Amino acid sequence: MESFFRDLRYAVRSLARSPGLVAAAVLSLALGIGANTTIFSAIDVFIFRPLPYPHAERIVNVWTTNASRGWQWAPASMPDALEWRARAHTLDVAPSYGATFNMGGERPERFEGARVGWNYFRVLGVAPAMGRIFLPEEETKGRDRVVVISNELWRRRFAGDPGIVGRTLLINGERHTVVGVMPPGFRTVGESDVWAPLGLDGKEARDTRYVRAMARLRPGSTFEAAQAEIAGVASQLAAQYPEDQGNGARIVTLRDDLYDATFRRATMIVSAAVLFVLLIACANVANLLLARAASREKEIALRTALGAGRLRLARQFLIESSLLGLAGGALGLLLSVWGIRGLVAIMPPEFFGVERIGIDGRVLAFTIGISLAAGLLFGTAPAIQAASPNLKESLTEGGRGATVGFRRGRLRAALVVTEIALALVLLVSAGLLVKSYLGMRRTDLGFEPRHVVTFRVSLPQSTYGDSTRAIAFYDQLLQRVRAVPGVQAAGASTTLPMRGSNSSTYWIDGQPEPPDAEKSLVPFRVVTPGYLEAMRIRVVRGRPLTDQDRTGAAPVLVVNESFARRHWAGGDPIGRRVAFTAGAREIVGVVRDTRDFGPDDDAPAVVYLPELQSGARTLSVAVRSDRDPGSLIPALRAEVQALDADQPIYDAGTMEEIVVRSIAGDTIMGRLLSLFAGIALVMAVMGVYGVMAYSVAQRTREVGVRMALGAQPRDIVRLVLRQGTFLAGLGILIGLLVAAGVTRLLAAFLHGVSAFDPLTFGLVSVSLAAAALLASLLPARRATRVDPLVALQTE
């Protein structure tokens, strides 16, 4: 142990004599280790760390399946979910569905939340910090006017009032009693601040599927037994109810549901990318240490002559590399603080667990471990060479003025080739993802998102239960909005593009009505007059919906081109009728297709129903303006408040923001790989420059002789560039072969771009070659300034 501390002190003194090398090595390592720490902090939350619920591995989700309809992950109907809960013995099933709540008072505010089964919190295994959870009898309509609120809402809106439990709040126009407050940091899937009971009235439709069924395996139950039982229950329901014909059920763990195979593949790719960055950093530092080891040959020879063994010499070099690794890790940990902030900022908030990403004991242990591992990795080559000194060769080379042998030069060149190859793989991967993203941004969406601001209004059942009141409210609201200065058009829809949709079964009127299990589904939107104009969805045939399409008028609808092609390819759908459970409607217009689920998805068949014939209470208002749309939000909020002071607006923003958020998940990997590829490129170019500069320094005598014999500067430049070109070309060739295999893993994340896109491969190769040649040119030009007499005299 005493000898170890002596070597440690000697390593510190030795490194202190090379501050430039230490600074370059620590900075390179900090970038690589910081990137790995940043990514690990997220992967630890998403993949390795348990979910924030007791025995979370026993929590599952139950989904409806139907092979004939292509359902693999369909939500449940409320009656089905209740039947699963009643009949299953291996599972404790809790139905729930997303809801929003208008909280009245001096500051009307809209909160995201959920309607949940009475056993919902029991399934999650979390008790409230104050009060209680729901009682079984509170699931029924009329007894459901109780709520549980989040700890954050309690502190923010009610200033942490200890008397909140039992307090009555005006929610959705009705009085509700707060019965519980959840613990700090508690979060469910999806943002939730308010939870209320289901409010069952016995009229829930079995063919309407919107329920999320979460369950916990009961004590003693296994996943396999639960899967077999729930499939059997679903089979019983399919035989009992026509609406369930062909339906099955499957369970999947909550973790696998949140972070599916595609998500795990993305994390694997990003993890490999940051590992490449670290390997490039290690190669750079290894090259620096090899150069330093060459300059220490006399020191090593002297220590060997004095009796130092191979292991002692190797240990000395490994201690020095470990110190560099730990120093790089310390700086990398500091850089990761900013890296984690940036990573969280680009992640969609719906990524479950984002708020848990940060530096903790696990992340710190990872950083220390990877720092030591990196130190051992880049210190191995210098340590091996130091442990095998050849005194005779060293003296001979020293007599020639060379401070590095041929084998050592080959090793340094091999490290540079490896850097270039890894950098090319990262650059190609990033280039493909960036090209895919740019392609999605240029995709014709079928509507024009620019200069459109949107917001939602949800009218409570208690005061707007009569559809005529809801129709009158939105009618007046849109008239007021259109009068706001700068507004060009305004309309409303139940859902906006990129925000999902509702679906309904249908068939073509005049044809035999098929059985329920064989009816097709079509997404629909309930829209007001002016919506198509506000979104600039062009009518290609017939007419749009107008103010005349009201209650009492003939029931009508507008379809898009995909729906028209599905049923009347080459024919005219105007005047045809589409039948729904509530009755048939006449087609009066055909509009352009819109990419309702994102630029990377095909445009689905969609139908538009007139809001003036339905009286929907929750609508998204779209307002087109000739000025900055975001500046209109205060005026639009004031118009809503003028009509009903208890109605807040929510989800206010621009349509462009919605489009960007819809592809945010697809862009995360592209952004990260672009950043890592940029770091890798800089490091690879630095590696090329370092090797070429060192090579030129070692060949000073040779250059001097050539110039003394009449060689021209261009000949010297050509000589040096030939070596740089060879290294760059070999690295690019190996990188292309590796990239051809690696990019296959990216295929699932590319849209409109081949994983072997020749343009991307070609541009990256040319750019990397140009950068490597530029890095070689600087040492080459320095070589032309060698004075032959001075060069020969130094020998």
Distinctive features:
single chain, 795 residues, alpha+beta, twelve-stranded mixed β-sheet, six-stranded mixed β-barrel, 24 helices
Query: With helices defined by DSSP (H or I, 4 residues minimum), what is the helix count?
Result: 24
**Largest sheet report:** 12 strands, mixed
Distance from N terminus to C terminus (CA atoms, Å) equals 43 Å
- The geometry reads as globular
Radius of gyration: 34 Å
Instruction: Return the average pLDDT rounded to an integer.
Output: 85
- The oligomerization state is single chain
Beta strands, count: 23
How does the helix and strand content classify structurally?
A: alpha+beta
The stretches of 5 or more residues where confidence is low (pLDDT under 50) are 394-406
Helix content: 40-55%
The amount of beta strand, in percent, is 15-25%
If you had to describe this structure to a student in words, what would you say it looks like?
- The chain is α+β, with helices and mostly antiparallel strands.
- It has 24 helices and 23 strands.
- The strands form three sheets. Strands 1, 2, 3, 4, 5, 6, 7, 8, 9, 10, 11 and 12 form a twelve-stranded mixed beta sheet that branches.
- A hairpin with a 4-residue loop joins strand 1 (59-66) and strand 2.
- Helix 20 runs parallel beside helix 23.
- The radius of gyration is 34 Å and the shape is globular.
- The two termini are 43 Å apart.
- 42% of the residues are buried.
